[in-house]
Amino acid sequence: MSATTTVPFVKESVGWSIALSVLMIVAGFLAIILPQVAGIAVNLLVGWLLVFSGVAHLVFAWQTRHNRGFVWELLLVFCIFFVGGYLLINPILGLVSLTLALSLYLFMEGVLEFVLSYLLRSIPGAGWLLFDGIVTVSSLP
Fold first, then answer.
1. Are both 42 and 25 inside the same structural domain?
2. Per-residue model confidence (pLDDT) at position 67
3. Sign of the C-alpha dihedral computed for residues 56, 60, 63 and 66 taken in this order
4. For burial by CB atoms within 10 Å, which of 16, 65, 106, 138 has the most?
5. Which of 118, 99, 111 minimizes the C-alpha distance to 137?
6. What average pLDDT does the structure give for the chain?
7. N- to C-terminal Cα distance for the chain?
8. What's the pTM value of the predicted model, to 2 decimals?
9. pLDDT tens digits along 44-102
10. 96 closest CA partner among 50, 51, 54, 36
11. In this structure, are 127 and 60 located in the same domain?
12. Residue 14: how many CA atoms within 13 Å on its side-chain side?
């Protein structure tokens, strides 16, 4: 790719970057003006992220269903779906208890990651589960 063919691409990228920056500034002002709406939006975003995370963990559990950590992974999926579903079903109450819900989630995930790292210690890369558990528990509010 020569320098002359990259110029239009760079100009288009800069345009999109400026548009996204303006959108983020407007969203920031709206969050300052309407903090309750912004809080509920963040609550719903976290709820959906937890649900999608639960789906990813469920796929992982299904792919590793013949390992010893399958039940623990399903328990983690249940915990993720419970907290994410709670935040989505009760967004106002979830807003009040978002810190508590996330603390519960992070604690349970950390403990279950410790157990999974022990049960799957013979599998290559199981040390990353232990590392993930340590980082998760240390990030509790």
1. no
2. 76
3. negative
4. 106
5. 111
6. 83
7. 48
8. 0.62
9. 998 999 999 999 989 988 887 787 778 888 888 898 899 889 888 988 887 777 778 77
10. 36
11. yes
12. 6
Apex 90 CA angle, 42 and 135, nearest 5? 50
Overall number of domains in the chain: 2
Query: Residue 31 burial by CB count (10 A; 0-12/13-18/19+): exposed, middle or buried?
Result: middle
Shared domain check, 49 and 28: no
Q: Cα dihedral angle (98, 20, 52, 45), rounded to 10 degrees?
A: 20
CA dist., res. 23 & res. 21, Å (int): 5
Residue 129's domain spans which residues? Answer: 35-138
Residue 11: burial class (beta carbons within 10 Å; 0-12, 13-18, 19+): exposed
